[in-house]
Amino acid sequence: MLQAGAAAAGCPECGEPLVMQGGCQNCASCATSPHDSEFKRLYSQEVQMLFSALDCVLLDRERVLYCSSELTSGLNLYRALRHYGLKTASDLRKKLDEAWFRTNVVDVNIQAAVAFAGHARRAVPPETIVVTPAPFSAPDWDQPQYLAFWRDLLLTRVGLVWFNRNWEFSNGCSLEFAVAQHAGLSTFDHAGNPLDCRKGIELLNAAIQQLASEGFDVSKLSDNLNSLLP
What we know:
4-stranded parallel sheet; 48% helix
C-alpha cells in the first residue's frame, strides 16, 4: 500500500513502471489507475473516514459555524405539493418522477442553501469556518444516515449554528435545531440574530399547526418539537 509522500515502484497488476497522466500515476501497459479501485465499506467506516478528513480543517470547534437549510423537505416541497394537489414527497415523485423532484425541489434547495452559507461567511469574522451540508453527496446513503452524520458533526465539531428562513418547515432543520439545543450550541436565525429554544418552539409549533390544517404529515416535525419540550 502506498503511504503519503511515497512513490509507487510499479503497477500492482503487472509490475510495469507507473507514469504521470493527468496528475495521477497510471500504468501505461495495462491502464490501471487509482481511480479504478473499488472499495466496500460499512457506513460506520465511511463516517469515520469523512470525520478524519474534516478534522484536517475543523481545528477549533468554537470557530465552526454550521448553516442549516432545507434540502429534501421544507417549504419549497410543500409549495410543490399544494400546486399539484398532493400530500407527500413520495406522491410527488410518483406523479412527476425522480428527475423532476431532484431538479425542482432538491437542486433549488441546494442553491438556496449554498447562497445562505455565502451570506453567513460574509457576516461572520474571517477566521470562522462555515460548513454547509448542501453539496455533500454519499451514494447509497439513505435519509436517516445523512441525518445521523450531520447530527454527529453538530455534537462533536460545531460551535455555532445559523438557521435559514423557514427552517421550521423542514424535518432535517428542525431535528438539527433540537440537537443544537440539547448540545448547548449557540443558535441564530438567517440574519445572525440569537434564536433561543423558546422562539424556536414557537416557530415550529406554528408551522406544524399550519401544515396539519392542510392535511400534510407532520409526524417528524412533531417528534422534533416534542424533544424540545420540558
